[in-house]
Amino acid sequence: MLSIHFPHLPADRVARSRWGASWLSRGRPDHPPVVFVAKIDNAMRLVALDTLAERIGLKRGQGAAEARAMCPSLDVIAADPSADQAFLEALADWCDRYTPLVALDGTDGLFLDITGCAHLHGGEKALVSDVLSRLFSLGVEARATVSSSAGLSWAAARYGKVAVIAPDDADWVLAPLPVTALRLPAETAAALERVGLKEVGDLLEAPRAPLARRFGSFLLLRLDQARGLEDEPLSPRLPVPSFSSERRLAEPLQDEEYIVELTRHLAKDVRSSLERHGEGGRLFELLLFRVDGRVFRVRAHAAVPLNDADRIAALFRERLQAVHDDLDAGYGFEILRLAVIRSERLDPAQEDFSGVADESQPLAAFIDKVAARFGPDCLMQAALFESHLPERAGGFAPLRDVAAAMRPSALEGKAIPENRPLRIFAHPERVEATAEVPEGAPRSFNWRKTHYRVARAEGPERIAAEWWIDGEAHPTRDYFRVEDQEGRRFWLFREGLYGREVSTARWFMHGVFA
After folding, report:
1. Neighbours of 491 (CB within 10 A)
2. pLDDT tens-digit series, residues 134-174
3. Residue 288 pairs with which residues in a beta bridge?
4. Which of 111, 423, 437, 460 has the most Cβ atoms closer than 10 angstroms to its Cβ?
């Protein structure tokens, strides 16, 4: 388990934007210390600082006024947690080059499960060295440690100096570290320090039962997790692809045609894995790792399970043309990876004399091409939904599956109820109606600046609200079918029950019969 800690993440983000990504390798410019402040307990306090601010004695949690008194030239910047989170997410994308199992660790770190990946980079020490050197060239200060447990890696990356820890050296590495290295709540760590238990070694030598009684079982759980005696599951930030293939290029690639051609070769590698499992891909993702650390993710949906390299490459040809303006190659891409995010069972089909295996193939190719160019929601299909409210019972859903397009429509063969109009408005329109209280049908109403007098009416049909969506206080509806003196028929409803839900009900037009 590899833990990466970014001790000055906000400062690195600002420094990269001010002085460029190579500011660390060139050396810090002559600039005052940088601190980040936020309002905490009605006071402006330091929440992050750069290396120079730490050297002059500033601390997190210190008041901004006190910090300015210590250093009048201090560069004070308002904290931006959303920008810091986006920067951390970008670094997590960059770490996908080492393993797809990347998890966020709070607001200043990452966890990488490198099981089975270290040998691809020359071993664990070489991998850690490569991670730190590349991050340094990208203008990001980092510390990293590899061990057999997430807790031990976390502790050593923040409080230790060992890059790779053998499983038998866990206690030896943990002993001199402070108790805060066990990821304990602040109040628990403070309580331990008050009784003289300041280092993890003090806990290793102490009896476990008294520790559990006084400080809770969570302390022992964290201790065992750091020693590797208890499992600690980590959830990757992104779903792990079922199948994938990648190329690491000796020279960066910029041309779109070469990217498509290389995608075709990657698709051929993926096809062999798909065929062994009897599956085809439905959702593909092409990862483009740019040399400056930025990662582009391009996804393509398939209407049917696919394992054909040419059709997969054609999908991404359309997608790359659609996102051409947003895909800045910069100095080129150094790594390309094709991943199958979702796959389904693919049964082999025998071709007929025409050479076409299935009549749905042309339709699937059309859906794939249009969806790749204009987005997966560009094609819609009539659909029924589980709802008793008229405006929610039917509508349109994205067409992403060729099987849904080939089978009869959900509305086909469905008889339209006699008490429902041919046209239902998506949004009921307000009308002014005159009716008998409390549950009488409308006698007349004004709709769209026209006055109508009702000759005949039928109702009410009472429909309750969907409380699990709209809430329990949402009013009930009473629907009426009415016919005016000229034979026109309308579908109106009264919102709210007199005396029980509302004092004055409102009327709405929801549809017309002809």
Report:
1. 25
2. 999 999 999 999 999 999 999 999 999 889 999 889 999 99
3. 296, 336
4. 111
List of residues 6+ apart from 45 with CB closer than 8 A: 37, 38, 39, 61, 62, 63, 64
Q: Flag residues of the chain having pLDDT under 70.
A: 348-361, 401-418
In angstroms, how far is CA 280 from the centroid of its own chain?
24
The residues, any chain, with a CB within 8 Å of residue 405's CB and separated by 6 or more, are 303, 363, 367, 381, 399
Q: Which of 370, 394, 396, 375 is nearest to 384 (CA)?
A: 394
Neighbours of 394 (CB within 10 A): 15
User: Per-residue DSSP letters for 165-220?
Assistant: --GGGHHHHHTTSBGGGG---HHHHHHHHHTT--BHHHHHHS-HHHHHHHH-HHHH
Task: Check residue 498 and give its pLDDT.
Answer: 83
State both tokens at 34. 């940088």
Amino acid at 290: R
Which sign, positive or negative, has the C-alpha torsion 361, 274, 263, 133?
Answer: positive
Is the pTM higher than 0.70? The answer reads yes
* pLDDT number for residue 491: 94
Q: How far apart (Å, rounded) are the C-alpha atoms in residues 79 and 90?
A: 18
Q: Which residue shows structure tokens 């008889």? A: 415
Distance CA 233, CA 457 (A): 64
Kindly tell me the sign of the dihedral angle through the C-alpha atoms of 351, 354, 359, 361.
Answer: positive
d(CA 287, CA 294): 10
Rg of the chain over Cα atoms, rounded to whole angstroms, equals 32
pLDDT at 296: 92
- Using an 8 Å Cβ cutoff, are 151 and 17 in contact? no
Give which of 238, 328, 343, 318 is closest to 291, Cα–Cα: 328
Identify the pLDDT of residue 358: 52
Pairing of β 442-447 and β 143-146: unpaired
